[in-house]
Backbone:
């Protein structure tokens, strides 16, 4: 099932793991103190990396939704 939505819930500690795992989807912009999901990304191209980032998140705040 393709991933259709990715988001980061409150509580991100900006450890950098997700942006290292999948920089095409996640980033910590210079003007932010939290990790963000990049806009206009085709998540289907990075499904394995998104799941790896979500599973590896030390505070479990990276979430994704798959199409039914």
Residues:
């Amino acid at each position: 099932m393709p991933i259709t939505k990715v988001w980061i819930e409150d509580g991100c500690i900006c450890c950098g793991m997700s942006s290292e795992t999948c920089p095409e989807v996640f980033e910590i912009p210079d003007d932010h103190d939290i990790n963000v999901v990049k806009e206009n990304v085709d998540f289907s191209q990075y499904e394995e990396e998104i799941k790896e980032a979500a599973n590896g998140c030390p505070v479990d705040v990276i979430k994704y939704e798959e199409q039914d």
Notes: The mean pLDDT is 93. Helices lie at 17-21, 47-56.
